[in-house]
Design a protein that fits this description.
Blueprint: E1 11-13, E2 16-19, E3 22-23, E4 40-44, H1 47-60, E5 65-70, H2 87-94, H3 98-105, E6 108-110, E7 112-116, E8 124-128, H4 141-150, H5 162-168, E9 189-191, H6 194-207, E10 211-214, E11 217-222, E12 229-234, E13 239-241, E14 244-247, H7 254-259, E15 264-266, E16 275-278, E17 298-303, E18 306-312, E19 317-323, H8 330-339, E20 350-353, E21 357-359, E22 363-364, E23 367-369, E24 375-376, H9 384-397, H10 406-432, H11 440-447, H12 452-464, H13 477-486, H14 496-499, H15 503-522, H16 527-533
Parallel strand pairs: 4-5, 4-14, 5-10, 7-17, 14-23
Antiparallel strand pairs: 1-2, 2-3, 6-9, 7-8, 11-12, 12-13, 15-21, 16-19, 16-20, 17-18, 18-19, 21-24, 22-23
Helix pairs in contact: 1-6, 1-9, 9-10
Amino acid sequence: MTSGRRHPGTADWAGFPMTEAGPFFLESVDMVRRPDPIRQITIVGGGTAGWMCAAAFARNLPGVAITLVESEAIGTVGVGEATIPPIRLFNAMLGLDEAEFLRETRGTYKLGIAFRDWGALGERYFHPFGVYGLRPELGHFLQYWLRMKALGEVGPISDYSLCALAAMSGRMGTQSDDPTSALSTFGSAYHFDAGLYARYLRRYSEKRGVTRIEGQVGDVALDPENGFVTTLTLKDGRAIGGDLFIDCSGFRGLLIEQALETGYENWTRWLPCDRAIAMPCEHGTLDANGAPVIAPYTLSTAREAGWQWTIPLQHRVGNGYVYSSQFKADDAAEATLRANLQGRPLAEPNRLKFVTGRRKAFWNRNVVALGLASGFIEPLESTSIHLIQSGINKLLMHWPDRNFDPANIEAYNRRQHLDYERIRDFIILHYHATARDDTPLWRYTRDMAIPDTLAHKIAVFRERGAFANAAEEMFTPTSWMAVMMGQGIEPQSYDPLIEMQDIAPIRSGFARMQAHLRSLVDAMPSHGEYLRRHNMVAREVA
């Protein structure tokens, strides 16, 4: 080589192939667009959604200015008190101390949901967290159980869930990280006061630099060229800008709907409940020491025009009646709720109106809607706070720069749409899979046409206990199995490969499993004692 130049393709410069002009990647450096980072996030609305956003951003976005605008005069819905296990991941991401968190929010543990009168009047079943059996994964447990059931040699499926057994015994334990331990199947979430949780996260966020502004938004200015939100003007005249705006303004959707007119997809043809009345009360049962007996689960009781939630916290019991105004008058619904409280009411009822569904886009231009501003699915399976968490997580995964790439926005919206639709189907299942025909609501939901996606899941499960779950689906096969079987959808057969196996070890394995799970539960303290032992009870409650 007399010219002194490297031959194209020769590895030389820091190990990169060379061209006549130098390292190959330098030829295209002008084609790579450097990101234009988001510098200012403005959150409209506080409450659970707003302060979850503020806390997550403060934790994960160093150097970004975060402003939250809220008004004490407007207030928040604040009735979301029950969660599902992923909330533990959110709290861990923030680095929260569990004992402090439970003290600050008057929280308790939740091992699942007990459903009463859903499949038929007088029937009850339990939807547990964790899995059935002795391993963290469900595996072929259901197939073995179905074979044993066909032989009449097995008890109810809840007898093989550590969470269900502990919940029904009023006990609480600690999940193990050891996959060989049955305690690895012990999943849990929380009940807590949503208003106290928001205040707790506000303190957390403000310590990490989030600026809170008290005030009401009076006007929203849009860029005349691209329709992006540029400035919020408060009613007192203050102007607040931002690169990215998060709409946590509740049902009204101040930015996503009132300013950007995104549109709403209505799901009331499948989920006709459109009202809720919430009312807290005192605990109805005390132990020998005068402390409240706190069940480690949510109770959902089907009523004539909807359902009632019962959620035990440290200092009170949360109650609410979700119902359809088509089948129940508001005053009659309140009378039903009052008649079914376990203790003295602690506040006047809070009446809510809603339309089940979702925004046609959760992210529109430079606005992302979270919480009630993004849509509403009734809290039958405690998904409201989870959808906030899921939206935050996905936003961080699809974090934009100030160019707001449309393909990135579309990818986020697609994932959020799937989340909402899969959860929607799971909630519809509860209403549709019923033998009840005692009131107009239950006759309607039993006979209504359901989404094809749900019909397919039911058909696949009914054939031989298989699951048609999609990737990233929130509810696991354990959840689908619990509700379908709890409400009368049972497999007609099971995997033929299971039939080919020797029944003797299967039979003895089920006997050992049931005895082992029972012994683990018997060794657990009561739920209240567990909270006290671990310093999780607020001082004024203890």
